[in-house]
């Protein structure tokens, strides 16, 4: 352990460039002779394209090319894939409709790309895109997933009869039926999870360059996983072989899942850079981002919980319809299945669970992973049902949860997951103490005295991060392995570069990854650089999503460091004529235990590179790599409690207190972990209180700008109280669990449980906007008056 | 095309622009000052915030020709003689940034806040005054903390100077 090692609140190494305006994002990049791209996009949610007329556009100033899907297909560019095969309960593979980067026959959502225009300036490209005339035959659209399943609904894809992609199930239905047959109490709820738009502040962008002399492409792109982008662009979209395609994801301004996927625009820019014979840059504007970034959530569910006479859970039954949008995005199939239904056991002993999920096409933007990806939907469902069941049987929500907590580990749930470690009582205790749960009645009385309503809501979440091991996810249908790679390069002067397949887009890897190396070798973090985001520098990697960079990415670095240490010790032992087993690494020195003999790490590094005096047979150099594949998921868990005050005259909900008590296992940098929790909480609170994605019945997105979609702002949220406890994850060498998504997973049910408590009602939809809350208060008043 | 002339970060510059060119485009593309970011098209997110004649403006909804003849300060002009501004330092010390994309606008907005309201800022005021800046990463907690810390430090500096 050093001052900058594991557990230290080290200030971020990457900050200086961001606070001085020297960050380098994709849109900041330029190239000689660069042209700008703009896309012609569908104005209809569902229409047949009769013709595309580019004559006027081609005559406009600065315009180089207007290219459409016919040309794209003719050039052999492949259809967009979904990388996770899910089978229906009858064993049939999912029904996937064709998805082209540029559509030339039938458009299926507003904003779908039809043609790409290349011009000298961005304005010229946009003007020309507007001058492209697309003649449409409008078709009837369907927006809601339940409507899409009805007889007679508009059909989106010939491959998916009834718009059904799959009808999937998990768990033992007969066991659950038997459990319900002997239940003393059943809590049944209809629960929706509202559709969200991820909204990283940096809009997506791509800068593509084709070098004809080398037949080589370079792509700068806003990606969370540049290696996966290169793999998919090569293997499936036939843009270029991997050795002829370099993908660079420089500074990336947030992702939250939406920058995992390889979108039509990146494919089209690469292809167009060759066609137009110049580098092509495209930068999304915010409305394009609303229309085309993969959305999140959008579930309709029914949940039933069966209890015995002691209020122990007997069984859980869930039916969910998931809106996938108009096309299957890269990991869309896995989100409402293996990332959702496998978490339906929550923190509780549930003997049997059965979940049925229908995934459905609609004429809306594709839906895929967004911060939490399936797990927020599961946690919201479980925690809304738990809270409601507690109220129905007359137990305190805390006691009811404790009555059903899992306390022995490992714990095999009925839905695949084997929880490896946890201490749910401690999280609940920490949260209840921090918010003074016992003093709530008094605070409620004070609020009531001034004409306000007050409520408190608990959420005990568990989630799964670092999806693994590769063999297991492969058996569930994943098209990729979910390991991570790292290379530790010690330079001759003793400084270090760590090449990682993880990608940082706000997470602070340049700091935390350096802390790990500092901890191991006793070197200052300033002598350690983290290299990421460039397929020419880092050999391979799976990128950053699913809170995997700590548990998986850092574990790979730890494995590579093991190898570096072994070799360094061998060299040091040889140089100091000591036994290898007696060498210890401490404070940047290699010491012979029990003696005053020592060598600076830099001296050993220099020896490795001069090669003048190495052990016999040893290769020169000091550089080691590792691939790490975890043995299991990790299971972050915790308890969030939200306290709200509601103004019954206006319906305005104010969060007066919010406590998050998390167990993330071992923590590298508490400052950065707290930042991740704060951000996650506000995204979850945004879902619960502010954000909603609204289409009209024709499939026009009504909330396609910051004038219409309510992003959380500073005065919408409070400062937070954070608590942590630690149970180490046994599944990786660092005992880490992952912290990136927990806030967004755990917070929505805490908010809605608090609001329903304040209003004295059972059911409500998110978001708890003033309009909706005011209406619920009126409805309740009317109902009570009628009784 | 119109010729615009202005002072940007203390340097006299001029350039040829189309009348419809936004100040944000002029700064980023003509001047290569890419620290000013564009995060929306509706003047809502504040990533493009710069100071024009000492006042905060959104450069994505200001034409370059409107800024002609004025003095513009961008995030690149906030440090003096290689020394970070107290506000920049406070953002780093309080982990007030993650992905960094909203950060230039946040810092310019926070400096403007203190220019207008002084250094005696409470949390409620800071949160209210940040209504024109959106951050998706930090949940605002540490941004508010950073601005408060910077305001307190600037108050001390002012007091010491008196």
From TrEMBL, chain A:
Q: Does the keyword Oxidoreductase apply?
A: yes
Outline the extent of the Aldehyde oxidase/xanthine dehydrogenase a/b hammerhead domain. 20-140
- The protein's name is Carbon monoxide dehydrogenase large chain
Keywords from the named record:
Molybdenum, Oxidoreductase
Which gene is transcribed and translated to give this protein? cutL_1
Which GO MF term does the entry hold, naming one?
A: iron ion binding
- Short name of any one Pfam family annotated for the protein: MoCoBD_1
Q: Which PANTHER family match?
A: ALDEHYDE OXIDASE 1-RELATED, XANTHINE DEHYDROGENASE
Q: What is its EC number?
A: 1.2.99.2
Supply the enzyme class, top level: oxidoreductase
Biological source species: Pseudovibrio axinellae
Automatic annotation (TrEMBL), chain B:
Could you say which residues form the signal peptide?
none
Q: Which residue range or ranges hold the 2Fe-2S ferredoxin-type domain?
A: 2-78
Q: Which UniProt keywords apply?
A: 2Fe-2S, Iron, Iron-sulfur, Metal-binding, Oxidoreductase
Q: Give, as one word, the top-level EC class.
A: oxidoreductase
What does the record give as EC number? 1.2.99.2
State the Gene Ontology terms under molecular function: 2 iron, 2 sulfur cluster binding; metal ion binding; oxidoreductase activity
What protein is this chain from? Carbon monoxide dehydrogenase small chain
